[in-house]
């Protein structure tokens, strides 16, 4: 499985961006995709996750009212999106998508639960 993240860029506070993650070689619907972010000098932190088959979603508290994770209705596109609204300067970070076969609920927010990682895309929120 290969993951490729895209869609980052420079946006003003209060603006929106949509990140995309293409999961090439995903073999089944029993696959989970997560988004993580890492700001300079900080540890990588969980943002959101989605179970491919059921579309069940998970969010970090600091984004759950602002952002939405979803997957393309066309299953063949193998794409997961992260719609980010009401962006704040503290959202500035490199954003990574990650994936693995089914992860139990208690572990889905842990970076160590994911075996496959994309290359990251930079999001900068600044006026």
DSSP strand tally? 11
Beta content comes to over 45%
Uncertain spans, ≥5 residues at pLDDT below 50?
A: none
**Overall shape:** globular
Q: Helix count, per DSSP?
A: 0
Helix content: under 10%
Q: Give a short account of the largest sheet.
A: 7 strands, mixed
Which class do the helix and strand fractions yield?
Answer: mainly beta
- CA radius of gyration is 14 Å
Oligomeric grouping of the chains: single chain
Order of helices and strands: EEEEEEEEEEE
Mean pLDDT: 94
Report how far the terminal alpha carbons are from each other. Answer: 37 Å
Structure description:
The protein has strands spanning 2-6, 9-11, 17-24, 31-38, 45-51, 57-59, 67-71, 79-84, 93-101, 116-117, 121-125. By secondary structure, the protein is mainly beta. Strands 2, 4, 5, 6, 9, 10 and 11 form a seven-stranded mixed beta sheet that branches. The chain has a four-stranded antiparallel beta sheet with strand order 1-3-8-7, with no helix packed on it. The mean pLDDT is 94.
Highlighted features:
four-stranded antiparallel beta sheet; 127 residues; 11 strands; globular; seven-stranded mixed beta sheet
Task: Please sum up the structure shown.
The chain has 127 residues and is mainly β.
What topology emerges from the helices and strands here?
Layout: E1 2-6, E2 9-11, E3 17-24, E4 31-38, E5 45-51, E6 57-59, E7 67-71, E8 79-84, E9 93-101, E10 116-117, E11 121-125
Parallel strand pairs: 2-11
Antiparallel strand pairs: 1-3, 3-8, 4-5, 4-9, 5-6, 7-8, 9-10, 9-11
């Amino acid at each position: 499985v290969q993951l490729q993240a895209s869609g980052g860029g420079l946006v003003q506070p209060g603006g929106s961006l949509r990140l995309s993650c293409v999961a090439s070689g995903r073999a089944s619907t029993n696959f989970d995709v997560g988004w993580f972010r890492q700001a300079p000098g900080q540890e990588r932190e969980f943002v959101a996750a989605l179970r491919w088959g059921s579309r069940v979603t998970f969010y970090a508290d600091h984004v759950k009212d602002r952002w939405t994770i979803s997957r393309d209705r066309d299953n063949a596109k193998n794409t997961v999106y992260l719609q980010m609204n009401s962006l704040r300067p503290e959202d500035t970070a490199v954003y990574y998508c990650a994936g693995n076969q089914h992860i139990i609920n208690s572990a889905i927010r842990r970076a160590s639960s994911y075996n496959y990682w994309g290359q990251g895309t930079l999001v900068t929120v600044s006026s």
